[in-house]
């Protein structure tokens, strides 16, 4: 009886989304831990990573949530799996997310550069690393999120319930991978 | 497009979400500073490098769930008996606390497994410390997060601002920062 009260429908949904998110996050952790020689060699990456992955998650889940709200408000409609979006709201949201993530990514890198100065480390290349990673991850995330939302909508699935955890976890993974990729490009 | 229209779009864009995303990102990176300040210790505790992004994601996801439920309950007016006495909210918090312990255990085992495979060495005391650190961080940060969510959410509600717009990015950022600060503290304490 106690267990039946504890395992509610909400909890089942939470467990599913948390498991997907946890698996992607552990893979992300394996990648970070496997690249710890890079973290030692390039100071500031450890400061950049948390902010950088938070940025992808919050920008793109916000876009998904806005698109979902527009669907509820009737600004975007679906008809037999076809999406009616005459005012191109989905595209506009994704493009504004792309712009925000590049600009904030650049500001974050400049912030990390100044924090490193406090640690008496002068490493201006961290700005370039952050900027290139921002451009790369936004270029990957934007079409990915766009097609994911279109796919979910065309299948009549709830964007709010499914996209949040998947988008934030994908954002974490792609954010980390592009940071290391930009290190390889530059050095 | 004329200049005035362009600047209006830019101002709307800045007001809409830019500042909140920037603020949330900078708060998260404060947690990164705490990790950077103990970089020598953290490289010695390899499982923690595996655990920290997943721990951030876990605390962030819990914050999203509590924030969205809190906002819904706030609009439904179910908090008449107070933010800490409401049955529905108490049940969700209890479920998440138990789930946090289970997921934290799985997470630390993943970190320990990685370390064993990579370093070909297994130490039971060291492994128990890794598990204990992860579980303590989850159980310490989670109630603090609830206090932060209630405070910010209620403040926004009183100011007639939609908590949905601000609470999720802010609470996930605070969850990141607090879990990394707490993780750094317990790494220094235990290792």
Key features of this structure:
heterodimer, A: 187 residues, mainly alpha, 2 strands, 82% helix, globular, B: 191 residues, 6 helices
Could you walk me through the main structural features you see in this protein, from its secondary elements to its overall organization?
Chain A has 187 residues and is mostly helical. Chain A is 82% helix and 3% strand. Chain A is built from seven helices and two strands. In chain A, strands 1-2 form a two-stranded antiparallel ribbon. In chain A, helix 4 runs parallel beside helix 6. The mean pLDDT of chain A is 82. Chain B is mostly helical and 191 residues long. Chain B is built from six helices and no strands. In chain B, helix 3 runs antiparallel to helix 4. Chain B is globular and about 60 Å long. The model of chain B has no long low-confidence stretch (mean pLDDT 84). Chains A and B meet through helix 2, helix 3, helix 4, helix 5 and helix 7 of A and helix 1, helix 2, helix 3, helix 4 and helix 6 of B.
Q: What integer value in Å does the Rg of chain B equal?
A: 20 Å
Count of helical stretches of chain A: 7
Shape assignment of chain A:
globular
Q: Helical content of chain B, roughly?
A: over 70%
The major beta sheet of chain B can be summarized as:
none
Radius of gyration of chain A: 19 Å
Strand % of chain B is under 5%
Structural class of chain B: mainly alpha
In terms of DSSP E residues, the strand content of chain A is: under 5%
Specify which chain pair forms the largest interface.
Answer: A-B, 57 and 54 residues
Order of helices and strands of chain A: HHHHEEHHH
Number of strand segments of chain B: 0
Q: What about the largest sheet of chain A?
A: 2 strands, antiparallel
Cα end-to-end separation of chain A:
60 Å
Task: Provide the helix percentage of chain A.
Answer: over 70%
Number of strands of chain A: 2
Query: What is the averaged pLDDT score of chain B?
Result: 84
Q: Extract low-pLDDT stretches of chain B.
A: none
* Spatial strand arrangement across the major sheet of chain A: 1-2
């Amino acid at each position: 009886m106690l267990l039946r009260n504890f395992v509610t429908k909400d909890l089942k949904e939470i467990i599913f989304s948390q498991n997907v998110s946890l698996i992607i996050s552990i893979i992300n952790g394996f990648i970070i831990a496997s690249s710890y020689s890079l973290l030692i060699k390039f100071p500031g990456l450890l400061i950049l990573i948390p902010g950088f992955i938070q940025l992808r998650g919050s920008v793109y889940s916000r876009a998904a949530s806005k698109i979902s709200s527009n669907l509820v408000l009737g600004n975007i409609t679906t008809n037999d799996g076809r999406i009616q979006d005459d005012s191109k709201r989905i595209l506009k949201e994704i493009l504004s997310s792309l712009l925000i993530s590049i600009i904030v990514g650049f500001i974050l890198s400049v912030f990390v550069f100044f924090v490193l100065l406090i640690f008496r480390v002068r490493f201006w290349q961290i700005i370039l690393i952050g900027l290139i990673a921002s451009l790369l991850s936004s270029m990957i995330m934007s079409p990915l999120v766009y097609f994911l939302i279109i796919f979910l909508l065309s299948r009549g699935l709830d964007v709010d319930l499914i996209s949040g955890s998947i988008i934030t976890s994908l954002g974490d993974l792609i954010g980390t991978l592009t940071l290391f990729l930009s290190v390889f490009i530059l050095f | 497009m004329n200049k005035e229209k362009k600047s209006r779009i830019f101002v709307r864009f800045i007001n809409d979400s830019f500042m909140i995303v920037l603020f949330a990102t900078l708060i998260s990176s404060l947690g990164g500073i705490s990790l950077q300040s103990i970089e020598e210790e953290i490289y010695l505790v390899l499982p923690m490098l595996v655990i920290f992004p997943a721990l951030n994601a876990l605390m962030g996801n819990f914050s999203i769930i509590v924030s969205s439920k809190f906002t819904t309950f706030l609009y439904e007016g179910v908090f008449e008996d107070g933010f800490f006495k409401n049955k529905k909210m108490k049940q969700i918090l209890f479920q998440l606390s138990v789930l946090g312990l289970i997921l934290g255990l799985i997470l630390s085992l993943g970190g320990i497994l990685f370390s064993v495979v990579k370093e070909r060495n297994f130490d039971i005391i060291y492994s128990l410390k890794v598990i204990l650190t992860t579980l303590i961080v989850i159980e310490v940060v989670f109630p603090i997060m609830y206090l932060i969510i209630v405070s910010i959410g209620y403040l926004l509600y009183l100011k007639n601002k939609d908590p949905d717009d601000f609470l999720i990015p802010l609470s996930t950022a605070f969850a990141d920062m607090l879990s990394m600060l707490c993780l750094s503290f317990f790494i220094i304490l235990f290792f």
